Amino acid sequence: MAVVLPFESAPEASIESLVRLVQPDMERVNATILSRTGSDVTKIPEVANHLISSGGKRLRPMLVLATAQMCGYQGDAQTKIAAAVEFLHTATLLHDDVVDESELRRGKATARMLWGNEMSVLVGDFLLGQSMRMMVEVGSLRCMEILSTAAAVIAEGEVMQLAAAKNTETTEDAYLAVIRSKTAELFAAAAEFGPVLAGRPKAEEAACRSYGTNLGIAFQLVDDALDYGGRAAELGKNVGDDFREGKITLPVVLAFRRGNDAERAFWRKALEQGEADDAALETAVGLMHKHRAIEDTCERAKHYGAIATDALGLFPASPVKRALADAVAFAISRAH
Amino acid sequence: MAVVLPFESAPEASIESLVRLVQPDMERVNATILSRTGSDVTKIPEVANHLISSGGKRLRPMLVLATAQMCGYQGDAQTKIAAAVEFLHTATLLHDDVVDESELRRGKATARMLWGNEMSVLVGDFLLGQSMRMMVEVGSLRCMEILSTAAAVIAEGEVMQLAAAKNTETTEDAYLAVIRSKTAELFAAAAEFGPVLAGRPKAEEAACRSYGTNLGIAFQLVDDALDYGGRAAELGKNVGDDFREGKITLPVVLAFRRGNDAERAFWRKALEQGEADDAALETAVGLMHKHRAIEDTCERAKHYGAIATDALGLFPASPVKRALADAVAFAISRAH
């Protein structure tokens, strides 16, 4: 006998239903974000909102709202927590752009290009402080622990990345350790707040954290692949930015390991000695295709995506559960 | 009839008794600091400890320990709180040095000169995260509120300072607003933890906060004066650094306002247009002496110092109360 399981059908590669399901909550989050970037100090609201209002997908706050829904949370703490997560994320982006000397972010000039590195560092610090204050208002020690741990772990990940920068011999494991910290940790934290707020059992907390971690890894890997094959419009930055900055990402790790001596000499010259002009970028992309480095990066992303989807297994079918699975498919599909 | 009040005699300009009274607690703070700069990520402990172990006076953690003692606190949360305060302070120094492009701090090369701006930004972020984590472990929402508010307010103060930079028409009030946020707020927070931990009445919390605020202002004003008249050794930075960076501090505000048109043209050229070489510094110091700008900055510092000392009035006489008053006298005396 056929059983109809409308919400357990194959996921769609779209975040539309996720966006729709959290819409009412997200409006409150946006209002909170707007009010909490307020400061009597000139420039702070302007610099903060430049990035916050620049059309990011707000994936991280959405994870807070969605997992809270999925876990049946009935309170209203998710609004401040989601805003705090977005603030922490924005702070790290402001600081990243200074560290990476980036000129473009989400298709717009970075704050540091408009107001200088100084302002980017300090407004980032302000947002870090505000995110912690919002958590204090929520009043849950456990939630504060999750966010403050994420803040420290993200910074550790960035330092690891800095140390690995320009080192073409970085292993895939070392690279994964970097993105687990700098990207996946905040996805994990965001997804964990829902079950924590709802007072759900440890197993559900762990499941949501695993979902977030693996979605975050998949997301970052696809980003890394897109940097060698996407278009600036969907990337929000220039193709080849990672290459020009000497960043070691998984496509490079794979192409380097699979290459011959001459190719490795090329990678070293390009990434370690900075000979990374447009001609070199073309060569780099050619070598990646030769060794299927971009395709396999996307394959790896699928692997983590599958773990993320499976992590949701112990939750009963619901529209929001399905929307979370769709979000994984969406993250992966950006590669095509 | 004469009453002997051994602890209410005139304060000595020394922090020796303060250092001695908090010594056993401070050893635990130092051990905590050392263990919490630990990270598996190479470089983080090295960069963090470069500044933390560089012989700062640890005045802020001492305030936590001393006010806890003065208020009769019997627990042990002050250790982690004092360490968290020092971490927040260190994080802001790391970021400040990037913002100000400073080369020297406490007489040593700044972290940014040794490991680069990137590392300074990120290790600062790591320390901010760690300081919040330590507060979470303490588990007092009120204490977390104090620290996270301080973090946001300090960043606001730095942004205000950035906006005021190179603006010779900054008023004394505007300048005071800057140092209230960027310097005095953390002194205030540090001093407030004691009565909060001890569960003392609001009036004592307010008294300690007032002590900290005004000590912090006095401290900063004397620092500002020393920049135009101290020696590199006691300053831990080069004489004239503020001048060369175009920083508007109280000595400049006073000399500018008291000067004639030709002098104001000089100040504008030096600080707004960056013509701040050694000859200009000599002229600047000359104008300051002419207008008693340095002396009056120290007079202002005395005013705030007096408020700080008076704020302690409602506490009964005790060795630690006296040591806190001595610390104010010490802060002021550095100017001579």
Automatic annotation (TrEMBL), chains A, B:
One of its GO terms (biological process) is isoprenoid biosynthetic process. Its EC number is 2.5.1.90. It comes from the Bacteria. PROSITE patterns: POLYPRENYL_SYNTHASE_1. GO terms for molecular function: all-trans-octaprenyl-diphosphate synthase activity; metal ion binding. Supplies octaprenyl diphosphate, the precursor for the side chain of the isoprenoid quinones ubiquinone and menaquinone. SUPFAM superfamilies: Terpenoid synthases (SSF48576). It catalyses: 5 isopentenyl diphosphate + (2E,6E)-farnesyl diphosphate = all-trans-octaprenyl diphosphate + 5 diphosphate. Belongs to the FPP/GGPP synthase family. CDD domains: Trans_IPPS_HT. Its cofactor is Mg(2+). Keywords: Magnesium, Metal-binding, Transferase. This is Octaprenyl diphosphate synthase. It is an enzyme of class 2 (transferase). InterPro entries: Isoprenoid_synthase_dom_sf (IPR008949), Polyprenyl_synt (IPR000092), Polyprenyl_synt_CS (IPR033749).
